[in-house]
Amino acid sequence: MNLYPINLDLVKKNVLVVGGGKVAYRKLERLLTTKANITLVSPKLNQAVQKLIVKEEIIYYQREFITADITDKFLAFAATDDRAVNQQISKVAKVNNTLVNVVDSKEESDFTLPAVISQGALLLAISSGGNLPALSRVIKEELVAQFSQEYAIFLEIMEELRPLILNEIKDEDQRRELFRRLADLELIKSLSTDKNKALVKLKEYLPSQIRRVIDERVSYRNAQE
């Protein structure tokens, strides 16, 4: 497969999962973080999936898959332990122009799911192209300790700092150099997981006009409290 890496916004998109076992559970667990409209179809569910549909907003149909299930879906996951059913879902999805992931056949899939490391806005995806998902998981285990909560705090601060830097520093080369200086892994790892303390540390790396604007905003917020 010649795969094109992409991050999809699934907010309010209709997504279908067919299956009620461990694999379906993993698909559902990740999908629930996207705020998609999730429909689950399966005649039976394992205990973990049962608990999930009780506490989460998942539309559940306790029956076998039918063609109409896929009509209005943006994505579909064929996650059953029945090869024939998964193959049927793939065929129907392709006719319907619905992107499909078939858990037991990368050849029948339009996309595969990478192993993911997530820290706030930081998202690292590791893929073996569907050839050996276990390798992706092993690499993830090697990397996960390297990207801890400091990265989430740093990017949360940068969400506010970046527009400020773009507005205050007009010279493109100066901006690029500043962003390069801030994107220092040792600096990020040294940050506190307390956002206010992390900001104090980052201010040491910012030019005076940026520090001044930050101080003014902090003073204004404090006055409003």
UniProtKB/TrEMBL annotation:
<dbReference type="InterPro" id="IPR006367">
    <property type="entry name" value="Sirohaem_synthase_N"/>
</dbReference>
<dbReference type="InterPro" id="IPR036291">
    <property type="entry name" value="NAD(P)-bd_dom_sf"/>
</dbReference>
<keyword id="KW-0560">Oxidoreductase</keyword>
<dbReference type="GO" id="GO:0043115">
    <property type="term" value="F:precorrin-2 dehydrogenase activity"/>
</dbReference>
<protein>
    <recommendedName>
        <fullName>precorrin-2 dehydrogenase</fullName>
        <ecNumber>1.3.1.76</ecNumber>
    </recommendedName>
</protein>
<dbReference type="GO" id="GO:0004325">
    <property type="term" value="F:ferrochelatase activity"/>
</dbReference>
<dbReference type="GO" id="GO:0019354">
    <property type="term" value="P:siroheme biosynthetic process"/>
</dbReference>
<dbReference type="InterPro" id="IPR028161">
    <property type="entry name" value="Met8-like"/>
</dbReference>
<dbReference type="Pfam" id="PF13241">
    <property type="entry name" value="NAD_binding_7"/>
</dbReference>
<keyword id="KW-0520">NAD</keyword>
<dbReference type="InterPro" id="IPR042518">
    <property type="entry name" value="SirC_C"/>
</dbReference>
<keyword id="KW-0627">Porphyrin biosynthesis</keyword>
<comment type="pathway">
    <text>Porphyrin-containing compound metabolism; siroheme biosynthesis; sirohydrochlorin from precorrin-2: step 1/1.</text>
</comment>
